[in-house]
Amino acid sequence: MVQTPDTKNKTNVNRGKEPAKETILTPRFYTTDFDEMAKMDLSINEEELEAICEEFRKDYNRHHFVRNKEFEGAADKLDPQTREVFIEFLEQSCTSEFSGFLLYKELSRRIKDRNPLLAECFAHMARDEARHAGFLNKSMSDFNLQLDLGFLTASKDYTFFKPKFIFYATYLSEKIGYWRYIAIYRHFEKNPNNKIFPIFNFFENWCQDEIGMETFLTP
Ligand SMILES: [Fe+2]
User: What's the 181 CA to ligand 1 centre distance in angstroms?
Assistant: First the structure.
């Protein structure tokens, strides 16, 4: 997950047959100096990087994000106030995950010829973030909503960071993402009656993806 400073803003939401209700947000997405990233000499850490990449290749959560029957009708059980807050939570989370996907995917694509191992790590991270964003977006469809990811991709503003700061920023983002998901998961372990939607059952394994990325990005 890449947290954005604007996560409290709303994002563009395609409300299907209700375009008048669309809201336009200004989520923050990131870009960097891809040439400088491609030229990074990681030979000192190559062994470590290869080990991390091998963990990514195993893709422990590849069978995790499968919706089950618990989702059926779950959206209809929320009272209007809870529903509104929860939808905002889904929007924010999906936008943050999607932001991570875009950055990692672009990094992977732009450096793959010159820095293949680093590129492969970013590709695996993009895979995980896409899975997270997709799972959240699927939950939004339970509320007859869908984030218009194509619109976001085409219209968003990009914040530029030099590669060094991209590593710092994404490291902190993944760390925050990990603690956010695990704190929510543990809260519901102690308070199962407050668990308003089945997506929270998925957060424990979800955290492992975030911590994998955090490990890779550790300065
Ligand atoms: Fe994520």
Answer: 10
- For residue 2, the one-letter residue type is V
- Contact, 25 vs 12, CB < 8 A? yes
Q: What is the pLDDT of residues 2-39, one digit of tens each?
A: 655 444 444 445 443 232 234 444 457 899 999 999 99
- Which residues, at least 6 apart from 203, have a Cβ–Cβ distance to it below 8 Å? 181, 182, 184, 185
- Cα–Cα distance between 44 and 47 in angstroms, integer? 8
Distance from the alpha carbon of residue 20 to the mean position of ligand 1, in angstroms: 31
- Annotate 191-208 with DSSP letters as a single string: -GGG--SGGGGGHHHHHH
What residues are paired with 30 via a beta bridge? 159
Condensed to tens digits (0 to 9), the pLDDT of residues 164-194 reads 999 888 888 889 889 999 999 999 999 999 9
The whole-model pTM stands at 0.86
